[in-house]
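[recover] target loaded
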């Protein structure tokens, strides 16, 4: 709180004089607080059965390192400490030491690509089935219903 007679750091009246307006100062303007306008970002719906992309070599290494780190430091619950230790270990490893993890990534990537081809094939078949279902519902069904109403039944008008 300010003491009596003390001048605030920001003088609203002086700000108004500089701007030449008696309206609400720009620092309190609704425009600054409003949400940014524009087209909302479109999010693509993720299909639940879509295969997940394979992890990189570092993350495959992390799977093994996590087990080793827990054995050495069972009381450590800090993710930051674990991540820092894993990063330092990965940086200090030679290419020959990283090779098994790179090979594992290649295997996982091949499996992913195989699963992705099968997934795309299933999706294409599903969309083809949907298109066939839609094409079965032709306009003739609507016309058939209209013909049934006109054939032999007269509609009474209550005028």
């Amino acid at each position: 709180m300010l003491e009596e007679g003390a001048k605030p750091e920001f003088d609203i009246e002086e700000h108004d004089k500089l701007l030449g307006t008696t309206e609400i100062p720009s620092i309190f303007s609704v425009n600054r607080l409003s949400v940014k306008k524009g087209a909302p970002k479109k999010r693509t719906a993720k299909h639940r059965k879509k295969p997940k992309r394979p992890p990189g070599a570092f993350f495959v290494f992390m799977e093994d390192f996590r087990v080793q780190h827990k054995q050495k430091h069972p009381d450590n619950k800090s993710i930051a400490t674990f991540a820092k230790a894993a990063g330092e270990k990965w940086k200090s490893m030679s290419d020959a030491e990283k090779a098994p993890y790179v090979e594992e990534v290649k295997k996982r990537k091949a499996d992913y690509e195989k699963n992705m081809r099968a997934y795309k094939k299933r999706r294409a078949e599903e969309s083809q089935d949907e298109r066939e279902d839609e094409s079965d519902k032709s306009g003739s069904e609507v016309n058939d219903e209209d013909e049934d109403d006109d054939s032999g039944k007269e509609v009474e008008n209550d005028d």
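[recover] notes: The mean pLDDT is 77.
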